[in-house]
Amino acid sequence: MPELDFNTPALKRHRKIRALKDRMAGMGIAVGGSSVILAVLLICFYLLYEVAPLFSSASIDAEASYALPAEDQGKSLYLTTEEQSEVGMRVTSNGSIVFFSVADGSVINRVKNLRSEKVTAFAVESDTSRLVAFGYEDGKALIVKHDYKISYPDGKRKITPVVEYPYGEDAIDVADFAIKKLTVRDGSDSLTMAAIGDTKSAITKVSKEVNFITEEVELSEQSESLPFVADVASMLLSGDQRYLYVATRSGALSEFDLRDFDNIALKDAMSLFKDPNTKLVSMSYLLGKSSIMVADSSGHVSQWFNVRNEENEEKLTFIRDVKQPIAIVDLAMEQRRKGFATLDERGLVAIYNATSTRQVINEKLSDNNARLISFSPRANGLLLEDDKGLHFFHVDNEHPEVSWSSLWGKVWYEGYQEPTYTWQSSAANNDFEPKYSLMPLAFGTLKAAFYAMLMAVPLAICGAIYTAYFMAPALRRKIKPVIELMEALPTVILGFLAGLFFAPFLEENLAATFSVFVVLPVGILVFAYCWSRLPQNLRWLVPEGWQPLLLIPVIVFLAWLCLAMSPIIELNFFGGNIRGWITNDLGITFDQRNALVVGFAMGFAVIPTIFSITEDAIFSVPKALTQGSLALGATYWQTMTRVVLPTASPGIFSAVMIGMGRAVGETMIVLMATGNTPIMDANIFEGMRTLAANLAVEVPESEVGSSHYRILFLAAFVLFIFTFVVNTIAETVRQHLRKKYGSL
């Protein structure tokens, strides 16, 4: 026979082309795989890029220093700036108001005291309202408001400071004695002022009423005496003008109830300090006028607000504190956040967030007897006064409210009875404090996944076992594609049906729902027992592996029976109202859209994933293993449990982990079927909010670059890490199972 020539030009050319194709395919696979890894890493790095500013340190830089503007008008009682930090204002001891350029200290305008009497007291209503009050030696008080008009002559911004007198240029009679201490609180219906002299105390309420004919605001005054408190260091009126707090230098606090203005009574008395040698330095309201911040001579700044006790009475309660090494000289509040700054005797300024107690800045800004500090409205500027004059500092402090404890720990928020895990990113008023605890979202994610997997895993794995091992091949070829087709259903449709149809149906048929869990398994077992006791010639009428079709009418009948018996069960065992029995007798909260609804709906969505992978893993077990086991005398069940399942266990475990990843990342079903409430409760009858659903809801509404925006990216990063950890564990366990059972 002639020898075959494998080196003909055609074969050589074919081998070269095939080798080129192999190299190109290898390069394509390598590039594709590397691109996937790179894409995942880029997503991770982008998330970190957005999250990193949350934990970056704040900074403060000197911008300008100059002599005290209009120093001849006396020492400063109050410092502030307008919105743009271009025009500053200082109130002097003789009652003058001096407006100056923040950049160089040049005087822009000077408004002298309207009255000839000596100013003996001064009070700030709040930084945001821009109202201040002067108390005089004749017992009168003058309310002044500083404002800033913006115009654009020649296309350039011009800020013109003005002084207004919202209650007229005539001072209000507050007391018949020289005012030594004064506090004021303004509202839509009334203005309240409290004054203390050397031996007397008084309080005045100015009520506002609109004349329906002239539409002018008419004022009426009412004055009452107060129990006198000696050695007063500070006074505060609550934001709703219901309570008056009077604190002495030693820290003794008296709380007066002003709700019955004709009968003012002492509501409570307490001590702010444990050490009798500690002295009160400052007492002022945090943003929102709910929390009182108390600074003392030992360096502590403590936060207090009203909490209802067991008798449902409001009681001023210590919440938290921060500590500086030495005595504090002054305290400044941020105007739009729950932040504050302390100035101590060394000229060291520390900036904190009250809720997170996070210290973001702690720097020495003065060596010359610093005495006053003040924030600009946006908290991006800080004015400091010392013996050399005024100093303006630029503050870069974007995310002070974010800390590890505020994200993952319990926090005691204003208006709450105790520390809680709370997510609430927005509200209707400007005084609202965002609450960014990720714990309710992480808990909700795990809760939704748990109930979904609780339903999906047993059904999917058991169904896959029967389909791959016991079912007739012809029936398997029909059943498997149908179940896999379920995965193509849009989750938004499943969520829509779950929220609008299934949740109300479940609520109306709770008795049927729970009876199904008992009646269905028992009924199927009874039917199987009866089937096994039928004559063999009858059982042979149904081909081997087609018996599941007989269960369809059985399951339909049992489900109908449970629905039909539901009213009877509810009437005889639960007084005709099972939901009321759950709520009233068991004390369990019931929401229509709850975890049970999510378990059914999301379990339905996860079943096809777990079923398909598990079925393939079991079906891929070599037939020689099963045949050998059966030949050695093992039953079908023994072969399944001791040979097939261990061999297929890596694939089954992977199926469960992939299904869990699908459940954790699911968005639309939990968004539409849970009520989307961020609460931490394992109750199956209450809803939840997951990380994925929260991202879908709030990312489009968040301000780019804000704390809210970046915390949402942090939530996405947490979800990314969780998925990565789950997949890593799954791969590790899968490899272990493969090594353990690979020899079978």
Give the SSE map:
Layout: H1 9-51, E1 59-66, E2 76-81, E3 87-92, E4 97-101, E5 107-111, E6 119-126, E7 131-136, E8 140-151, E9 158-164, E10 172-173, E11 181-186, E12 190-196, E13 201-210, E14 217-225, E15 232-237, E16 243-248, E17 252-257, E18 265-271, E19 280-285, E20 292-296, E21 300-308, E22 314-323, E23 328-333, E24 339-344, E25 348-353, E26 359-364, E27 372-375, E28 381-386, E29 389-396, H2 404-408, E30 423-424, E31 435-436, H3 439-470, H4 473-485, H5 491-508, H6 510-532, H7 536-539, H8 548-573, H9 578-585, H10 595-619, H11 623-631, H12 636-665, H13 668-673, H14 691-698, H15 707-741
Antiparallel strand pairs: 1-29, 2-3, 3-4, 4-5, 6-7, 7-8, 8-9, 8-10, 11-12, 12-13, 13-14, 15-16, 16-17, 17-18, 19-20, 20-21, 21-22, 23-24, 24-25, 25-26, 27-28, 28-29, 30-31
Helix pairs in contact: 1-15, 3-10, 3-12, 4-10, 5-10, 6-8, 10-12, 11-12, 12-15, 14-15
Question: Describe it for me?
Answer:
The chain has about 750 residues and is an alpha+beta fold. About 40% of the residues lie in helices and about 25% in strands. It has 15 helices and 31 strands. Strands 6, 7, 8, 9 and 10 form a five-stranded antiparallel β-sheet that branches. A four-stranded antiparallel β-sheet has the order 1-29-28-27, with no helix packed on it. A four-stranded antiparallel β-sheet has the order 2-3-4-5, with no helix packed on it. A hairpin with a 4-residue loop joins strand 12 and strand 13. Helix 1 (about 10-50) crosses helix 15. The longest helix has about 45 residues, at about 10-50. It is elongated and about 120 Å long. The two termini are about 50 Å apart.
